[in-house]
């Protein structure tokens, strides 16, 4: 069984994109939110990133979930798995397998801003898990959590380290929102990339093959395609910087020469000085104490903290 529930239609998405572009490109310094990377091409580029030798988070998280999925199933006995920002749901299968083996699972609810990613994943999952109800939700995790189904014993999964895209104030709101959606005793499974040497983390965001650079510049391609903008992609260099105070990676696009860009979809003309940057993504890295504290502040108890063998990435299981 496969259903699609849409809280964000093409019009809402277009409106949100226009609002973000107007706010971000008239600000000083300029910024764009990372969610606009993920059109079909951006999602494909991200899939390629997950296979790069330098990009460790996906492999580490998969290792943890492979080892721990049966324990997660036994501990939660969830009847519904709700996955936020599910994308293509590749690692989710490990959880679906374990919860199916545990005999508790009846419903899978993937939520993503991308209907294409949801459709592609749902087709595979309905084929591989006969009898599982797949309830797809097109929505934004900062706005549509209240639409998540209320029945059953729910496990919300937010994997991949995507929580790192939120700045601390946004994170606090997000954890509070998730907590208020859950009933006491239900669970949150959270993937977080960990603080480590910049010599490991920086190459993960600036790979030798230049896939991440293409992914970064793809946001300009999205603006060209959806808003009729005339960004010259060759005019922007990919930058990945480690901020040791904030303990996050920043991705930026740096203008190689002075430029004027017109963006008809929002009626803007935007000037760039040579060397001027747009911040396109923050990817925060975490420590156990910080994750535990932020979860506790939102009303979650940390039941389990698991890392991969090299201690690069963590998966937390928290109880509401
Ligand atoms: C999908 C947000 C987890 O921050 O590592 C990968 C996105 N950006 N390479 C991350 C990303 C550059 C990724 N997340």
From TrEMBL:
<feature type="binding site">
    <location>
        <begin position="140"/>
        <end position="141"/>
    </location>
    <ligand>
        <name>S-adenosyl-L-methionine</name>
    </ligand>
</feature>
<comment type="function">
    <text>Catalyzes the SAM-dependent triple methylation of the alpha-amino group of histidine to form hercynine, a step in the biosynthesis pathway of ergothioneine.</text>
</comment>
<dbReference type="InterPro" id="IPR035094">
    <property type="entry name" value="EgtD"/>
</dbReference>
<dbReference type="GO" id="GO:0052706">
    <property type="term" value="F:L-histidine N(alpha)-methyltransferase activity"/>
</dbReference>
<dbReference type="InterPro" id="IPR032888">
    <property type="entry name" value="EgtD_Actinobacteria"/>
</dbReference>
<feature type="binding site">
    <location>
        <position position="112"/>
    </location>
    <ligand>
        <name>S-adenosyl-L-methionine</name>
    </ligand>
</feature>
<dbReference type="InterPro" id="IPR019257">
    <property type="entry name" value="MeTrfase_dom"/>
</dbReference>
<keyword id="KW-0808">Transferase</keyword>
<dbReference type="InterPro" id="IPR017804">
    <property type="entry name" value="MeTrfase_EgtD-like"/>
</dbReference>
<feature type="binding site">
    <location>
        <position position="205"/>
    </location>
    <ligand>
        <name>L-histidine</name>
    </ligand>
</feature>
<protein>
    <recommendedName>
        <fullName>Histidine N-alpha-methyltransferase</fullName>
        <ecNumber>2.1.1.44</ecNumber>
    </recommendedName>
</protein>
<dbReference type="InterPro" id="IPR029063">
    <property type="entry name" value="SAM-dependent_MTases_sf"/>
</dbReference>
<keyword id="KW-0489">Methyltransferase</keyword>
<comment type="similarity">
    <text>Belongs to the methyltransferase superfamily. EgtD family.</text>
</comment>
<keyword id="KW-0949">S-adenosyl-L-methionine</keyword>
<feature type="binding site">
    <location>
        <position position="85"/>
    </location>
    <ligand>
        <name>S-adenosyl-L-methionine</name>
    </ligand>
</feature>
<feature type="domain" description="Histidine-specific methyltransferase SAM-dependent">
    <location>
        <begin position="18"/>
        <end position="319"/>
    </location>
</feature>
<comment type="subunit">
    <text>Monomer.</text>
</comment>
<feature type="binding site">
    <location>
        <begin position="281"/>
        <end position="283"/>
    </location>
    <ligand>
        <name>L-histidine</name>
    </ligand>
</feature>
<comment type="pathway">
    <text>Amino-acid biosynthesis; ergothioneine biosynthesis.</text>
</comment>
<dbReference type="InterPro" id="IPR051128">
    <property type="entry name" value="EgtD_Methyltrsf_superfamily"/>
</dbReference>
<dbReference type="GO" id="GO:0032259">
    <property type="term" value="P:methylation"/>
</dbReference>
<dbReference type="Pfam" id="PF10017">
    <property type="entry name" value="Methyltransf_33"/>
</dbReference>
<feature type="binding site">
    <location>
        <position position="91"/>
    </location>
    <ligand>
        <name>S-adenosyl-L-methionine</name>
    </ligand>
</feature>
<feature type="binding site">
    <location>
        <position position="55"/>
    </location>
    <ligand>
        <name>L-histidine</name>
    </ligand>
</feature>
<feature type="binding site">
    <location>
        <position position="165"/>
    </location>
    <ligand>
        <name>L-histidine</name>
    </ligand>
</feature>
């Amino acid at each position: 069984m496969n259903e699609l529930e849409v809280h964000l239609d093409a019009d809402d998405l277009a409106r949100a994109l226009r609002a973000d572009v107007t706010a971000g490109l008239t600000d000083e310094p300029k910024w764009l939110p990372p969610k606009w990377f993920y059109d079909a091409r951006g999602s494909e580029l991200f899939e390629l990133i997950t296979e790069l030798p330098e990009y460790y988070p996906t492999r580490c998280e998969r290792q943890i979930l492979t080892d721990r999925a049966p324990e997660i199933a036994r501990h939660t006995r969830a009847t519904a798995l709700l996955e936020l920002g599910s994308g293509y749901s590749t690692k989710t299968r490990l959880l679906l397998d374990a919860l199916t083996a545990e005999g508790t699972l009846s419903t899978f609810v993937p939520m993503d801003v991308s209907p294409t990613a949801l459709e592609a994943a749902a087709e595979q999952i309905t084929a591989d898990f006969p009898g599982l109800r797949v309830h797809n939700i097109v929505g934004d995790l900062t706005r549509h959590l209240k639409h998540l189904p209320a029945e059953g014993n729910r496990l919300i999964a937010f994997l991949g380290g995507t929580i790192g895209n939120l700045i601390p104030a946004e994170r606090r709101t997000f954890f509070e929102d998730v907590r208020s959606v859950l009933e006491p005793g239900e669970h949150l499974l959270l993937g977080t990339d960990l603080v480590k040497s910049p010599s490991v983390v920086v190459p993960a965001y600036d790979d030798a093959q230049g896939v991440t650079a293409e992914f970064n510049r793809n946001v300009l391609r999205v603006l060209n395609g959806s808003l009729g903008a005339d960004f010259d992609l060759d005019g922007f260099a990919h930058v990945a910087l480690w901020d040791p105070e904030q303990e996050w990676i920043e991705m930026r696009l740096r203008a190689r020469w002075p430029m004027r860009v017109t963006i008809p979809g929002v009626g803007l003309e935007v000037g760039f000085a040579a060397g001027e940057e747009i911040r396109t993504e923050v990817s925060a890295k975490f420590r156990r104490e910080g994750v535990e504290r932020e979860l506790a502040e939102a009303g979650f108890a940390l039941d389990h903290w698991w890392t991969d063998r090299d201690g690069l990435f963590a998966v937390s299981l928290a109880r509401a």
